[in-house]
Every structure is written in C-alpha cells, then in structure tokens.
Automatic annotation (TrEMBL), chain A:
Name of this protein: Electron transfer flavoprotein subunit beta
UniProt KW keywords: Electron transport, Transport
UniProt entry tagged with the keyword Electron transport: yes
The UniProt record lists the keyword Aminoacyl-tRNA synthetase: no
InterPro entries reported for this sequence: ETF_a/b_N, ETF_b, ETF_beta_N, Rossmann-like_a/b/a_fold
GO CC, one annotated term: cytosol
Organism: Geodermatophilus telluris
MF terms in GO: electron transfer activity
Pfam families referenced in this protein's UniProt entry, alphabetically: ETF
UniProtKB/TrEMBL annotation, chain B:
The record's free-text note on cofactor binding: Binds 1 FAD per dimer.
Record keywords, A-Z: Electron transport, FAD, Flavoprotein, Transport
Role: The electron transfer flavoprotein serves as a specific electron acceptor for other dehydrogenases. It transfers the electrons to the main respiratory chain via ETF-ubiquinone oxidoreductase (ETF dehydrogenase).
One Pfam family cited in the UniProt record for this chain: ETF_alpha
Similarity section: Belongs to the ETF alpha-subunit/FixB family.
UniProt domain Electron transfer flavoprotein alpha/beta-subunit N-terminal: residue ranges: 4-188
Cofactor: FAD
Residues that hold FAD according to the record: 209, 234-235, 248-252, 265-272, 286
Superkingdom, taxonomy of origin: Bacteria
GO BP: fatty acid beta-oxidation using acyl-CoA dehydrogenase
Designated name of the protein: Electron transfer flavoprotein alpha subunit apoprotein
GO molecular function: electron transfer activity; flavin adenine dinucleotide binding
Length: 259, 321
C-alpha cells in the first residue's frame, strides 16, 4: 500500500495574517509559517494504514523553498520520503492551477491512496480533493471522520450535519480527513533525527512537464481586485454580573429587537 | 438578459428548498435572469418548484435520476457542466456547503473556468466579496477565466421573494463512468434535532470550555431553545467531549454568520473567532474579564455562566410568554 500525503505550509493562524499589497497574494514571506494543522491528521492516518498494511508513505508539497520545514515535520512523524515541487513561476497560482501541478506530481508517483487534510487554514477553499479526483479520474472520498481499507476497496465515513455518509470506492482513491479521525502523534527525538536523513526530492515545473506560463498570478483563473482590513467593531458594552447580568443581557437583546 | 444558473440544495428531511438556496437565488439576480437547477433522485423537484419560482427562478431545470444520489458530488457537477455547455450562462451560483464547494471545483475544471468560494456578496459586474483570515480582511475578487462560478456563504444575503415563471425544463441525465466512482452506501443521522441548522440559523448559542461537562451543555441548549436558536460549540468543548464535532464553530469546523451569536464560556481564541466573527451582533458571557471574546462582543457579561445563562433563559421565556 503506497500512500502519498499532500501537505501544505500555511501562515500560522494564531498570528496576524495578511495579503501582500504588492501583488495581492497571501503574505507568506513575512509570515510565521507552519504545517497546515489538519494535514497532521492525514499524515497520522497514513502512518496507521501503513502500519496495518505495509508499504511506503510519501509526502508531497508544492511551495516555496521554506516549505521544507513543513516537510521535515511530516518526515519526523514517520513518513518515509518526500517530494517538494518548488518553482518561482508557481507563485500566486489559483486552486485550479495548483491542482494541475499537484496532479502532474502525483502522476509521477506510484500510489494506491492519496491522503490530505479536508481544508487549509489559509485559503479555506476545501476543494482540492475534488479537483484532484476530477483531474486524475480517481474516486473522491472527502471529509472523512473514519477510514478503512479492505483489499482493493476504501471505505470512509464522510462527516455531515448530525451524522455521516458511508462512502465506498475502489483504489486508487483520494481521501481528505477532518481532525476527528485520529489523534496525531508527536514526533519523537529519534523521529526528528531520522527525518534529517530521509530523502527529499525537489522537482521544478520542467520536471513535471508543465509550461510555466500556464501557472502563477498572470494566468490565474481568478484575481484579487483589492483588499482591506475589516473595520474594527465599535466599542461594545461590558457589564459585570451582580445578580442583574442576565436582566441586562436580555434588556440589550430586547433593545436590539433580537428577542 | 443573460441566464444565471443556481444549483438547488434541498432539506434531506422533507425535500423543501434550503434557505441557502433562496439566498443564492436572491444574490444571483444581480447577474442576470435566474434559472434553478434541481439534480437528484426521481421526483425530487416536485416539492421545490413553487419556492424556486417565488424566489425568482424563470426556469427550473429538472435533472432526475437515481444515480445522482447514489454517487458523491461528481454527478451534480456533470449535470451542471452539460447545462453550462447548452445555455452558456453568465455565471453559476451554488450554496457554500461542503458538497456545493466541491461541485463548484469540479465544474470549474470541466468548463475551463475559475471559481470563488464562500463569497458574501456578488456585485452586478461579477466582483465578489470574501471575508478571510478569521474575519480580519475583506477581499474583492473576480473570476477572469471562463464562466464565473461562485459559492455563497450562508446568511450573507437576505432571501427576498421575486415571483417568476418557474417553467420546468426536463434535463436528460447520462452520467459518465467517471461520475460513478464513489458510491454513497448509507446516509446515517446520529443526532435528530428540531433546532435550526447551524449555518442557516438566525441565532446561534455556543458553549465553550467554561461549560465544563457534556451534561452542562443542557444549559446552552436551554438558552438556545428559548430563542429558537441553533447550538454551537468551541473546539475546546468538542475536544473535551462535551459536544459532537458537527456542531463545532471555528477554523476546523463551521463558519456561521447569524444575526445574533451568543458565546457562553468561550474565551475567543482565533480558532473560534474564525468561524463566527462576521456575526451581526455578538454577545458574550465569560467569568474572565480579560477574555478576548469581549473584544468582539457588542454586549458582554462578566460573570458565572451557571448563573447568567439559566436566568437569561427564564427571562426570555417569560417575555415570549
């Protein structure tokens, strides 16, 4: 069972994030960048499937040179090797273009299962599994809270409002995971040391056979026109409960015609 | 006038049109003459047509086949792609559910188009508004390639009736093998609730770590029920096992934008703010006067939620008689 896990480096959602005013793309150079949190659950799931079925776990990342930090983190958890697609021409790509790059990179790998986080904390588009399934012609099983592989069949519980859908498809397939699926391990000291020696292959657009003119800001399928900080909310009212807090609260709701 | 396609989402329980679809029909009118697209199992459109006509659908395309519901996402994208090729619409607008976003993405690839997800507004010239980075930034974007495809965030646009003909147009469904890869074997409902759906609700009452136990969430539910509200939970509450993940509001859960959001025992970490910051009015109850949630709150009560929330519930019940 060969598994590829897609990992994205994102600006830390716990810090102030912005767009770069020079070209309206996500300001990554000045940000505190970390591995997309939900991707850790996909890595953990891959390691558990490997443990049960054998095989190899490969990390695939598209991103600037600095994304190696996210790759090392993934390798230190226990993944075997990584492919890092990096090329200046990719900067500013939209989801449609990024999916073309990821699909081309996947086509050069030997996989039975592709795993990824259900969403990224920067763009929050949550569409990449669908885009890759469409491009590669493989089944999409997105939003998993549970994954089982039985022979050549993959079964997933897709989280829905108040329940789940049971999905089933033949391998190879692409699965995205929510943070309900497992509890990711912390990298051990041994894992961190071992990660430094694990192979990371760097690929350019040329290596993938992609014309640089088809990706990047200039030919993106959508464009940011402008952006601005959201105006701060006016100072709110804050009262301390002295037995009358609930009364004041309901009074406020009534004043605002909310009750 | 150019045609604009709106993909219809129905309530799974009763087959009526979901509020998010009425909002999409309303927003789509800025771009042209609205046609609704109903895709689902046989007979699915029957309960939907009147509401679609009332909210501005001149035409209702009806694509019915048992296979549409048997397979995940891909069949609906194929039906829409077929219609886009036939009628060359000015745009496609889809409610921003997980399925809606995925249909939008696949449709974009099938039609050589760009797409924008989770937009809160669409202007007549096609410029869309998105609120990003936990509500910190407002971004205006345009699709520059192909047929613009938008998914509309729930509760961003007030649905307004605008009666139209609602002429039914049957669509022949022939799915490719590619659309029939992921089979939906079962749809399991674990929590039956009479409360409104979280992303659609006008009022949301959420509990956090301060609620302290699963049993205590009955206090949150009581306050919610007094207001006819949906119940939400912070990640801390969900991770502690107080409430199920499908009710989580925040970065790794739902994004909500109700008229009124009441945060009870929630400190207001960025993880949570990301999911509720665009709520119109925010009320917070927390015993810590320094809790960051108060920076967002229009009205805050510093106090013990176990006192304030039950008392507020009683007062609201009394007002409502």
């Amino acid at each position: 069972m060969n598994i590829v896990v897609l990992v994205k480096q994102v600006p830390d959602s716990g810090t102030q994030r912005s767009l770069d005013p020079s070209d309206n793309t996500v300001a990554r150079a000045t940000a505190d960048n970390v591995i997309n949190e939900i991707d850790e659950y996909a890595i953990e799931e891959a390691l558990q499937v490997k443990q049960a079925q054998g095989g190899e776990v490969t990390i695939l990342t598209v991103g600037p040179a600095s994304a190696t930090d996210a790759i090392r983190k993934a390798l230190s958890m226990g993944a075997d090797k990584a492919v890092h697609v990096t090329d200046d021409a990719i900067h500013g790509s939209c989801a449609v273009q990024t999916s073309a790059v990821l699909a081309a990179a996947l086509q050069q790998l030997d996989y039975d299962l592709v795993l990824m986080g259900a969403t990224s904390t920067d763009g929050q588009v949550a569409v990449m599994p669908a885009l890759l399934a469409e491009r590669l012609g493989i089944p999409q099983l997105s939003g998993a809270q549970k994954l089982t592989v039985e022979g050549s069949t993959v079964k997933v519980e897709r989280q829905t409002d108040g329940g789940f859908w049971a999905l089933e498809a033949p391998l190879p397939a692409i699965v995205s995971t929510w943070d309900t699926i497992n509890e990711p391990r912390y990298p051990s000291f041994k894992g961190i040391m071992a990660a430094k020696k694990k192979p990371v292959e760097t690929k350019s657009l040329a290596d993938l056979g992609i014309d640089p003119a088809t990706v990047g800001l200039a030919t993106a399928t959508s464009a940011v026109v402008d952006f601005a900080g959201r105006p701060p909310k006016g100072e709110g009212v804050k009262v301390t409960d002295e037995g009358d807090g609930a009364q004041k609260l309901v009074g406020y709701l009534a004043e605002q015609k909310l009750v | 006038m150019a045609e604009v396609l709106v993909l219809v989402e129905l309530n799974p329980a009763d087959g009526t049109v979901r509020k998010g679809t009425l909002e999409a029909l309303t927003a789509a009118r800025a771009l042209g003459e609205v046609s609704a697209v109903v895709a689902g199992g046989p007979g699915v459109a029957a309960g939907a047509r009147d509401a679609l006509a009332e909210y501005g659908a001149s035409k209702v395309y009806v694509a019915e086949s048992p296979e549409i519901d048997e397979y995940l996402v891909a069949p609906k994208a194929e039906v829409l792609a077929q219609l886009v090729a036939q009628v060359s619409p000015a745009a496609v607008v889809i409610p921003s559910s997980p399925e809606g976003r995925e249909v939008a993405g696949r449709l974009a690839l099938k039609t050589g188009s760009g797409f924008l997800t989770d937009v809160t507004e669409i202007a007549a010239d096609g410029t869309a508004t998105q609120v990003v980075f936990a509500g910190a930034q407002i971004v205006h974007s345009k699709v520059t390639t192909g047929t613009p495809i938008y998914t509309l965030r729930g509760n961003s646009v007030a649905p307004e009736p605008a009666p139209a003909a609602g002429e039914q147009v049957p669509v022949e469904v022939t799915l490719s093998e590619q659309a029939k890869l992921t089979r939906v074997v079962d749809k399991v409902v674990e929590q039956k609730s009479n409360r409104p759906e979280l992303t659609e609700a006008a009022i949301v009452v959420s509990g956090g770590r301060g609620v302290a136990s699963a049993e205590n969430f009955s206090i949150i539910e009581g306050l919610a029920d007094s207001l006819g509200a949906a119940v939400g939970a912070s990640r801390a509450a969900v991770d502690s096992g107080f409430y199920p993940h499908s009710f989580q509001v925040g970065q790794t859960g739902k994004t909500v934008s109700p008229q009124l959001y009441i945060a009870v025992g929630i400190s207001g970490a960025i993880q949570h703010r990301a999911g509720m910051q665009t709520s119109k009015t925010i009320v917070a109850v927390n015993k810590d006067p320094e809790a960051p949630i108060f920076e967002l709150a229009d009205f805050g009560v510093v106090g013990d939620l176990f006192q304030v929330a039950p008392q507020a519930t009683e007062l609201i019940r009394a007002r409502r008689g």
